[in-house]
Specification:
With 137 residues, this protein is mainly α. Helix content is 50%, strand content 4%. It contains 5 helices and 2 strands. The protein has a two-stranded antiparallel sheet with strand order 1-2. The radius of gyration is 20 Å and the shape is flat. 26% of the residues are buried.
């Protein structure tokens, strides 16, 4: 599995479009709150990965491992609903709790995720290649 960006469509797979629209209308926002929250959950997931110190992060700060997208959306769904003062049902609360537990497992290294970049094997050294064209006389 690869690392990828998360989109509103990912959130809508966890939270209905009607719920997302209700959130947007629940308060006046200077910027689209969904985009901000998606960026925030990506940063949070990357923080847990960074805490593991065993997984190389993808250099693109807007990506997370595919394996964590569903957990990220379950986490975000709960955050949105509680901001709207909605009573969150038991199944959604449990999904949120499982997501947090998964993030903690990532941080402590018991849940392995694919590295964002291929690690350089221990003991090897990356050697740049330089090619020079001979001057035309």
């Amino acid at each position: 599995m690869a690392w990828r960006k998360v989109f509103e469509a990912d959130l809508i797979s966890s939270l209905s479009l009607k719920e997302v629209d209700a959130f947007r209308k629940s308060a006046e926002f200077e910027h689209d709150p969904v985009d901000q929250l998606l960026a925030g959950v990506v940063a949070k997931v990357r923080g847990y990965i960074r805490a593991s110190r065993t997984v190389a992060l993808d250099p693109d700060e807007s990506t997370i491992p595919e394996a964590l997208v569903t957990d990220a959306m379950d986490y975000l769904r709960y955050e949105i609903l509680t901001r709207m003062n909605v009573v969150v049902n038991e199944s959604r609360t449990k999904a949120y709790e499982r997501a947090v537990e998964t993030f903690k497992e990532v941080a402590n290294g018991t849940f392995k995720v694919e590295p964002g970049v291929e690690p350089v094997p221990a003991g090897s050294v990356a050697v740049p290649s330089i090619s020079v064209k001979p001057p035309i006389l």
